[in-house]
Amino acid sequence: MEAIAALGIASNIIQFVDFSLKVVSKGNHIYRSNDGSLAEHNDLELVTNDLLILQKGIEQSLTAPSLNDSDEDGDKKAMKALLLASDKSAKNLLQRLNMVKAQGRFRRWKSLRQALKSIWSKKEIEELSSRLSMFRDELQTRTIISLEYVNMFDVN
After folding, report:
1. DSSP SS3 for 114
2. What CA–CA distance (Å, rounded) separates 45 from 99?
3. What is the pLDDT of residues 118-131, one digit of tens each?
């Protein structure tokens, strides 16, 4: 029985050391970065900002008058709903990414704190990123179908 208890304690110590190493490693990456954030977070931020720019372009094209507005009314409503939901998810993701950046003075300690926050919020960031990817895929599908619909009537 004592062997099992000793094994449990050893397992807990190994988990604690592993977690501590992750925090220190991420903290070091944050501290050494120019902007106080992890490289993968910078990439996510770049892609999310680009998606927001593309969404604005799509929104502008949807508000432009077209020749057959009545035929596309349902498609436009669906696209606008997707854009609205996607915009909300993108802004939530950017807000969450901004929360895990180390800023200001005493960056060494803040880097460790932000690394801890980054580890704790990893699942949430991944979920938001996944939702945004789902919206992107659906927007692409709707756009392709709309283009095929337009091409089908242009040929005739």
Report:
1. helix
2. 12
3. 888 889 999 999 99
